[in-house]
Design brief:
27% helix, single chain, 13 strands
Length: 419
């Protein structure tokens, strides 16, 4: 009898852990809003995130004034087919019929499923493909260019197809060897993709200077004991030292079902906010950066957020960068990709696509009237100045923004607190 009771108690504990991890509110804060120039909202992405960036740019062209596409492809390339996504949209670009995709996009616009394609003409577009990309072949990107040239002023399109890079987001000095696939899909190619992408989108006048990112943990003084994660080269020696903070936020409230995993999204997202954008006086830009397959938090932690170079450029140029996070759905999306072939449903490439709706809800929140950020800080703190000493903040309650170094609570801690 005693053994039976113990077994029953164990099963109850396992059930509680499951319920907590699957349904309980995540240990993240609520996304706030800022003083954002709604005419300066842009999007970019890598790999499946590149396809998603194109979808957002085309579907919501009345919101996004520019896009950066790294190893992605043309709008609705897969046409609701996993087979197409693995062949035409990756390894066999000769199968892509750009003219057919163009006509299909026009038809969807006429039906009101996507915004007017006339909005795209003045967009600013950056396209990147590595010469040795073996996963999304360079020809897929040239098909994306062909698609876009039907709608975007050619003078606004900047391409970079000359770097001898494998499949990865290319940086100045982070990641693996440039011409090899690295586990994080971040490649060290002595080329700052984030800078060139954002610089083109925002008119070619962005500043970048030598800066440092510091990571601090609990009880560690960032002044006397800093851990330098990255240095970026100087494009401007006169610009002031930029500073900013990475926060995490709860993605579930932006999803109709309140269950992110049901549509291939994580419960947690990231956002980088320059210090200059925390008040109500400075008008800032907004950029949505979308990771690729196997690059979400559940695969590589915050590496995509911290190592791709967006934050350094954003801190200096009043750009808030939000990093939505995708996650695994067993069988239908085992690699945590964004939906560009229809694993959520057949509306994935239209206004009512589930992931499109979720990301647009985030954008709407960020650009709403409220000027107060109420997100709980992430365990990792970004700052490009070592003069800010982190202070502790609650990792459970929603708090006013503070730089924090307190690690996230474990599932067990949460169960005990709930109990």
């Amino acid at each position: 009898m005693m053994n039976f009771i113990r077994i029953w108690q164990l099963l109850c504990c396992i059930f509680c852990l499951y319920c907590y991890s699957s349904f309980a509110a995540p240990n993240e804060g609520k996304l706030g809003s800022y003083n954002i120039d709604t005419a300066a909202i842009s999007v970019s992405g890598f790999s499946s995130g590149g396809f998603m960036a194109v979808q957002l740019h085309v579907i919501e062209s009345d919101t996004f004034m520019g896009a950066g596409v790294v190893a992605g492809g043309p709008y609705n390339c897969a046409h609701d087919s996993l087979s197409n996504s693995l062949t035409a949209c990756m390894s066999s670009p000769y199968m892509i019929q750009a003219k057919s995709l163009i006509e299909n996009a026009k038809a969807q616009a006429d039906l009101g499923r996507i915004s007017s394609l006339n909005n795209l003409y003045n967009s600013r577009l950056y396209l990147f493909s590595g010469k040795e990309d073996s996963i999304v072949k360079p020809g897929v990107m040239t098909k994306a260019q062909e698609f876009y040239e039907e709608f975007v002023n050619p003078a606004n399109i900047l391409t970079q197809y000359d770097i001898v890079a494998e499949h990865g987001f290319v940086t100045m000095n982070n990641g693996g060897a440039c011409n090899r696939i690295y586990r994080t899909y971040i490649n060290d190619c002595n080329y700052d993709s984030a800078y060139h992408l954002l610089n083109h989108i925002y008119g070619g006048n962005l500043e970048v200077r030598k800066s440092q990112i510091y990571m601090c943990y609990k009880n560690q003084d960032p002044i006397t004991n800093p851990v330098i994660l990255k240095q970026v080269p100087s494009y401007s020696s006169t610009a002031p030292a930029p500073r900013g903070t990475v926060f995490t936020y709860d993605q579930s409230e932006f999803i109709n079902s309140l269950n992110p995993s049901s549509i291939g999204m994580d419960s947690k997202g990231y956002i980088f906010v320059p210090d200059s954008c925390t008040g109500a006086t400075e008008t800032c830009r907004l950029h949505v950066s979308i990771h690729g397959c196997e690059q979400g938090d559940s695969f590589i932690g915050d590496s995509y957020v911290m190592e791709t170079g967006y934050n350094e450029v954003a801190a200096l140029n009043n750009i808030i960068v939000i990093y939505p996070q995708a996650s695994v759905i067993p069988i239908s999306n085992p690699d945590g990709c964004w939906d560009f072939w229809g694993y959520t449903d057949s509306n994935y490439a239209y206004h009512n696509g589930k992931q499109v709706v979720a990301i647009m809800n985030m954008v709407k929140r960020l650009t709403s009237d409220s000027k107060t950020m109420t997100s709980s800080p992430a365990p990792t703190v970004i700052t490009t100045s070592p003069t800010v000493v982190p202070t502790e903040a609650s990792s459970i309650k929603t708090v006013e923004p503070k730089t924090t170094t307190k690690p996230e609570s474990s599932i067990e801690d949460g169960v005990l607190e709930l109990y």
